[in-house]
Amino acid sequence: MASTDKTAVPLSSPKSEATPPSAVAAAAKSPFKYSFVDVVLRVLLFAATLTSVVVMATSKETELVPLIRIPRQAKFNHSPALVYFIAALSVTGFYSIITTLASLSIVLNPTYSKTFLLFFAFFDVVFVGIVASATGAAGAVGYIGLKGNTHVGWTKICNVYDKFCRYTAGSLALSLFAAILLVLLSMISTFTLYKKIRD
């Protein structure tokens, strides 16, 4: 009589769905990549604001005024708008130093990265407004110096104070570059914070 015993077949346990190593590596690299870009942009922000302040502060020029032939000096502290410009860019440069160090700490120790990113996302927007307003105020003064305003009797001065106007224009270009950097930094901080909260 044939044996009816059946060999017991062990049930295979379901395979655990492990995360692919490539996905883990990509997730680990992503925060570092954004942090590295953030550090580079903040260093550029410091360089732009510092150079802008130095150029504006050294823009003074003494020339003989036409008709009366008296030497007169043109310098940034003769205009409240340019004084505000110097102050705003100086504070922004100091802010860039602090946030560069904070961004480096995120790269080295990401424990408090969400707190720092929230700080960046808020204050980067604040400083975009500060730098943009300072650039606009100084740009208005520079435009009047370049073109004058015949309606109120303000004559142009850039035909006399050539160096002062060139330095002011260069400083304004650097401050505009700083404002663009701050916009990019704000976008990066917000996007990185969103990614961390979502994950």
TrEMBL record:
Keywords: Cell membrane, Membrane, Transmembrane, Transmembrane helix. It is a multi-pass membrane protein. The chain crosses the membrane at residues 39-57, 81-104, 116-144, 172-194. Residues 36-181 form the Casparian strip membrane protein domain. Its main location: membrane. InterPro entries: CASP/CASPL (IPR006459), CASP_dom (IPR006702), CASPL (IPR044173). It is found in: Cell membrane. It comes from the Eukaryota. The keyword Transmembrane helix applies. One of its GO terms (cellular component) is plasma membrane. Belongs to the Casparian strip membrane proteins (CASP) family. Homodimer and heterodimers. This is CASP-like protein. The lineage of its organism: Eukaryota, Viridiplantae, Streptophyta, Embryophyta, Tracheophyta.
